[in-house]
Amino acid sequence: MSNPFRATRDTLPCRRGAHFEAGQIGPSIALHSITGEIDAANATAVSQFVEANLGGAGRLILDLRGLTFCGTHGFSAIHRVNVISSRQATSLAILAGDEVDRILRICDPGGGLPVVRTLEAAISAVASPASPHLRLVAGD
Fold this sequence. Notes:
By secondary structure, the protein is an alpha/beta fold. Helices cover about 35% and strands about 25% of the residues.
């Protein structure tokens, strides 16, 4: 069965309010951009898109600056991308805009996700040696 999220060109059709683009910066950095809205209707599609288009890239920049809405389901999708990246030993940098910043203040106040503010910072972050995306928290 064909995967509807596998990019055969740079731009994929809009998925219920979100527009996906897969590209590259140089030979080893995948750049995935999502614009529009991430909500309950399309949050699963976000992580499926990233996973389907990651390929063997050891570095990923997820550009979310073009989002006009990101609800709690969007945060879950971003977290799933972090888990996917960690599982595949892929360095991840998330370019967050205002909408993502808003949800991260609520859902990730400790700053556990690898968020950066500029494309230059994202390139620098993923070019550095990989650090674990998931942190173990010891209980009492």
